[in-house]
Amino acid sequence: MKSRKKVAIYIVVSLILFSSCQNGIKNVEQLVREWEGKEIQFPPNSVFTVQGKDTIEYMGNSSSYKIVTYVDSIGCTSCKLQLLSWEEFIHRVDSVSYGKVSFLFYFHPKDKSELRLIFRRDNFEYPVCLDENDCFNKLNHFPSDMMFQTFLLDRDNKVLAIGNPVHNFKVKELYLKIIQGEISGQTKEAEAIMTEVAIDKTSISLGRFNWQKEQKATFTLKNTGNKPLAVQDVNTSCGCTSVAYSKEPVQPGRELNLEVTYKAEHPEHFNKTITVYCNTESSPLILKIMGDAE
């Protein structure tokens, strides 16, 4: 069995890779030390529902691992939830874990009706706990940054890793490696086949438009290296933004189009981020769309 020390090294490396300006390396290391091995406390008699109905008892107590995420009521709810990305990640985990991982979602809602609409819109059929009194957070005092409000736990509810896997490719791979028992003293990233990429533009303005009309934009990536270009993952900062692209490797000299679709949930000025992970030194690539949905 791999030592906790080696797991902690992976956690530190992964978190440093996606830490933002306000979360410097020292703060990340301190956060890891604070949460590593800490036991997460769950509110007694937590009530889980599917799409706001069908109350069930669900705590995943027999699972070897748990992935638990907490979402607070601050800011854009849809941006934080990323339910479609969670569904993809759950399917991937299930395919490699043979049911030994449970997922626990605790949402502290500012508007239960908005949450139910989002659940129905995204057809999200996994159990969630609508924690109206914020009991889960009060028991554990989670970090304020949503990137650090998701945890991989062992059977005893102790933290093995911290970070949001649907918002960061590195964290996603970390979780999968721990679940599959692949953590070792060395990473495989240095051995990865790398290439180079050029982007036609990094930001696109969609201007002013009727908020009820779907908008589209296209970013073009060109493989300027001598090895195939592989897009490993694409994350968006909001559930209102989706990206379609070919999953096939891009041969040297060829191009790949990222078709971005934006559908406003209400009138707003927006500035959305698309993060592209690929086998280049410049990865992740940060792209933006902006405009005014009126």
TrEMBL record:
Signal peptide, first to last residue: 1-25
Swiss-Prot/TrEMBL keywords: Signal
InterPro entries: DUF1573 (IPR011467), Ig-like_fold (IPR013783)
A Pfam family the protein falls into: DUF1573
Coiled coil spans: none
Protein name: DUF1573 domain-containing protein
Native source species: Bacteroides stercoris
Organismal lineage: Bacteria, Pseudomonadati, Bacteroidota, Bacteroidia, Bacteroidales
